Amino acid sequence: MLLALQSIRPFIANSILTRLNEGGPLFMYTTLLILIVIIILLIRGFLKPTARDKTITLVSSISLFVLVWGFLGQMLGLIGAFDAIEAAGDISPSVLAGGLKIAILSPLFGMIVFLIARIGIIILNLLKK
Fold first, then answer.
1. Residues 19, 112 contacting (CB under 8 angstroms)
2. 121 contacts: CB under 8 Å, gap ≥ 6
3. Exposure winner among 38, 75, 110, 129, fewest CB in 10 A?
4. What does the pLDDT average to over 12-41?
């Protein structure tokens, strides 16, 4: 069992790194960094009740930023893709589908981080007295 888990771990790590690079490193790694900041802020909010209101406000603002950041990455990626399609003239549907899949990665990751932040905010609000 342990051997099976050890053989899966590199596959999962490579898959995550591949997706981060496919979705546009600037937008994906920035979103990952923001996710880490949000997790740190939420932990601080759980451990330090006096800072909960400030933490909720800050995480709320950051979560909205990361959502918009993901969609900005998608728009810039689609503009670049459409420029390449226009220059090439005729492309196959599989190439178009691959490009659209890559364009969706950045906003998807932004939405996941947004949801994580919002769930944390809900929990912090429930813990407030």
1. no
2. 56, 59, 60, 63
3. 129
4. 85
End-to-end CA distance of the chain, in Å?
Answer: 45
Distance of alpha carbon 57 from alpha carbon 5, whole angstroms: 40
| CB proximity list for 118: less than 8 A, separation 6 or greater | 63
Supply the pLDDT for residue 123.
95
- Which segments within the chain are labelled E, that is strand? none
Joined tokens for residue 43:
């932990």
Report pTM: 0.82
* CA angle 27–23–38, rounded 5-degree value: 45
35-78 tens-digit pLDDT: 999 999 999 999 999 989 999 999 999 999 999 999 999 998 88
Q: Residue 44 and residue 96: Cα distance in Å, rounded?
A: 44
Dihedral (CA of 28, 31, 33, 36) sign: negative
